[in-house]
Amino acid sequence: MSPASGIVELGGVAKKFGDGPPVLADFSLTARPGEFLSLIGPSGCGKSTLLRLIAGLTDVSAGELRVDGRTPEQAAAELAFVFQEPTLLPWLDVAGNVEVPLRLRGATRATRAAARDGALRLVGLAGREAAYPRQLSGGQKMRVSLARALVLAPKILLLDEPFGALDEMTRERLQEELLAIRAQQGWTAFFVTHSVAEAVFLSDRIFVMSPQPGRISAEIAVPLPQPRTAETRLSRAYQDLIVAVTRRLRSAEPATAA
Amino acid sequence: MTTMAKIRKNLPPVLMFLLAGAVLLVTWIAVHHRLPEHLIFLLPTPGAVWAAAGKEAAVLARATFNTMEGALLGFGLAIAFGSLAALVLSLSPLVRAGLMPYLMLLQLTPIPVLAPLLVLWAGAGLPSVALITFLICFFPLLVNTTQGLVSTDRQLVELFRMWRAGRWQELWRLRVPAALPYFFTGLRIAAILAPIGAVIGDFSAGTSAGDGGGLGFRAYYYSTQAKYPELYAVVAITGGLGFVSMGTVMLLSRLALGRWHDAYARNDS
């Protein structure tokens, strides 16, 4: 596949803040439409910075970054970001929170309601429209955060450890649901995580990153068949991949690290 | 059953409140009876205070009304200008660094020093009382609201930027609602200070001309006349005003924030 067909293309991207050491150096990567890519690596390897670059929240210091054939700023409408914290507006109920991005774009009430209902159904929160964030569990809040990202029908979803603060059971359920939603909508995902198991379960490709400066130290394809379900986690292929990625991750860490 | 549980849950605080009041009253009366004759004016009995208040009812009612007028006017001015100034200060750290020292000067100047000037500028009575109340209430509202406007969650600001929100959208849909809990904290402090400010203002810049002055002027007058039971009545009324003012603002904050803010919410979830 030619690089021109990538929906997100990074060529020799470098990033540094002020006079500090480079956070990312000579970073190249091409995401094909509909791909699920995970970024995994030790703290300080620039995973989150990479997402922020693609989101247009900060500019590249050097190199080429194209999102949907344009600059991240121009492609803003195709991008949605999900943080580790649900980052909901506590003064709005669930419906209000999911509608915020549409409201900012001046969408009509009918458009907002239709998109909001669709997004809430996708994340399994239909019927909770009137609840306020303080009345929701951590998992439910993350579902609202996901719905708010999906309500824009993005082409690219950027997820920065979205399930990192959740308990194991909630986390696995949300992983399965995220893949089910992706099967319906076909967006491209950049998923930052600290969990090898999570990366293997979700991804088409995993990029193991190493720090100082951040770069790709290994790229691992995940040939597990779709759809992936709870059953997938019991398969030999899945377990073997976890071992393989863990080995790569160990060798990516500095030798002095404990 | 649930009503019974509710009563049982709420009874102890109410009981404690009444009990503390009773203890206070009994102590008061006990001390009164043990005071030597020539010092008894220091602590008149609650009955004597009540009787004095009854005798002066018309004058005190008029003074209470005048003080409330000044307090409300100054409080309202403080809300309007405090919020406006907070919006300006929230624009940038540079604006804050440049303007804050001047605004602090307002707070650092003692009222008795300012009062003669204010009387010169605005005239004695209500205008000066309202201005002094304004000066006292302005600062806590300004500081708290500014703090709220600049404390917006950074990730939420980034999301709004990604959603291409304009500056005004970011302000009205994100920064202002996020600052509301801070604003109400300032409002609670200002609500306590407003009646105090009006009384101090009246004391320093009030006048008996025309409307008979406010509670501050009454306090001054009664003290010069050695009318101590009447003075105690003024103390009680002033305290009462503070309670009403504070209670009203607490109610308002609960109405405004109760549904979404944990600190103001009833335990309904």
Topology of this protein?
The complex is a heterodimer of chains A (258) and B (269).
Chain A: E1 8-15, E2 24-31, E3 36-40, H1 47-55, E4 62-67, E5 79-82, H2 94-104, H3 109-122, H4 138-150, E6 156-160, H5 168-185, E7 188-193, H6 196-202, E8 205-210, E9 215-221, H7 236-252
Parallel strand pairs in A: 3-7, 3-8, 5-6, 6-7
Antiparallel strand pairs in A: 1-2, 1-4, 8-9
Helix pairs in contact in A: 2-3, 2-4, 3-4, 6-7
Chain B: H1 2-34, H2 46-55, H3 57-89, H4 93-108, H5 111-122, H6 126-150, H7 154-162, H8 167-205, H9 215-224, H10 228-257
Helix pairs in contact in B: 2-10, 3-6, 3-8, 3-9, 5-6, 5-8, 6-8, 8-9, 8-10, 9-10
Describe this structure as you would to a colleague:
The complex is a heterodimer of chains A (258) and B (269). Chain A has 258 residues and is an alpha/beta fold. Helices cover 34% and strands 21% of the residues of chain A. Chain A contains seven helices and nine strands; from the N terminus they run E-E-E-H-E-E-H-H-H-E-H-E-H-E-E-H. In chain A, the strands form two sheets. In chain A, strands 5-6-7-3-8-9 form a six-stranded mixed β-sheet, with helices on both faces. A three-stranded antiparallel β-sheet of chain A has the order 2-1-4, covered by helices on one side. In chain A, helix 2 (94-104) crosses helix 3 (109-122) and helix 2 runs parallel beside helix 4 (138-150). Chain A is globular and about 50 Å long. With 269 residues, chain B is an all-alpha fold. Chain B has a single domain, classed as MetI-like (MetI-like fold, Orthogonal Bundle), CATH 1.10.3720. Chain B is flat and about 75 Å long. The two termini of chain B are 19 Å apart. The model of chain B has no long low-confidence stretch (mean pLDDT 88). Chains A and B meet through strand 5 and helix 2 of A and helix 7 and helix 8 of B.
